[in-house]
Amino acid sequence: MELKKYLGVIPAFYACYDDAGNISPERTRALARYLLGKGVKGLYVGGSSGECIYQSVQERKVILENVMAEVGGKLTVIAHVACNNTLDSQELARHAESLKVDAIAAIPPIYFHLPPYGIAEYWNDISAAAPNTDFIIYNIPQLAGVALTPALLAEMQKNPRVIGVKNSSMPTQDIQMWKDQGGPDFVVMNGPDEQFVSGLAMGATGGIGGTFAVMPELFLKVWGLFYAGKVAEAAAVQNDICRIIYKMCSAHGNLYAVVKAILKKHGCDIGSVRKPLPALIDSDLTVVDEASAMIDAAIAK
Ligand SMILES: CC(=O)N[C@H](C=O)[C@@H](O)[C@H](O)[C@H](O)CO
Ligand SMILES: CC(=O)C(=O)O
């Protein structure tokens, strides 16, 4: 298996809208190009940060098509395809496979807390619709409402396409457990950006993060320092990252609205967020300016 392509810094891709709030193919391509230029390993398209739960199946296809047209073959592309109902998720899985993405990923079904066998069937049904594509389990219990367990993972490991877990639960111990259970070739991606260094220390093979795309330089720096054995220096950069995230989260508008305003200041305009996510209000502009300056200062260090 070619697992190397998953090792590294993989930003969660943001939804790119035009000024009327429709999906913008041009801006989607511009963001993909922008991140390619930053030297990241791959992109995680259509996840939480991609606002997937507020988009139609057709819109999600258009986004992935444009990302693949721009960076397919150049970056590792993981397409999140879960839609909360099996049929639509399978349609997106088939579509993603037809575009030759590297992997598909899926959260568990949300709202109804299904039993583990129900979750396994949902994931396996999705995976069966993309029979030649790697499958990554997305564990994010604080938002999904249900958690991956060792028993559920063991059930999923019977599916040879299951190559890893993207772990967004808060205990870094979970990363250790999935990695230990999965073995040396198993991919375990750190979710919480605030714990990237700790996740790597616990055995994560890389990270997929919602704030990577607004400051890829800093996460790449952490990655480089950590693997050069300079853990204290990596932790210092992590500290800067955490303070920046807390600042971005202090706005009235949603985190992704802040992130997009900062990206615009950095030359990449991808519009704002879609309702019901709160957009920025006037007083948030100070938060945007301050967080943006903090990012620039941390990169310049
Ligand atoms: C709960 C959640 O959305 N987690 C994301 C994925 O793991 C993270 O990447 C966060 O966006 C990030 O850590 C900022 O809090
Ligand atoms: C942050 C992340 O992993 C997501 O957008 O799903």
UniProtKB/TrEMBL annotation:
The record's Gene Ontology biological-process terms are: N-acetylneuraminate catabolic process
**Record PROSITE patterns:** PROKAR_LIPOPROTEIN
Q: Which UniProt keywords apply?
A: Lyase
UniProt KW Coiled coil keyword: no
Which enzyme type, at the first EC level? Answer: lyase
Annotated GO CC locations: cytosol
Q: Can you tell me which residues form the catalytic site?
A: Y138, K166
State the InterPro entries in the record: Aldolase_TIM, DapA-like
Task: Tell me the residue numbers annotated for binding pyruvate.
Answer: I208
One Pfam family, short name please? Answer: DHDPS
Record-listed E.C. numbers: 4.1.3.3
SMART domains linked to this entry: DHDPS
Q: Which GO terms describe its molecular function?
A: N-acetylneuraminate lyase activity
Gene3D superfamilies listed in its UniProt record: Aldolase class I
| SUPFAM superfamilies in alphabetical order | Aldolase
What family classification does the UniProt entry report for this protein?
Belongs to the DapA family.
User: What is the name of the protein in this document?
Assistant: N-acetylneuraminate lyase
Species, as recorded: Intestinimonas butyriciproducens
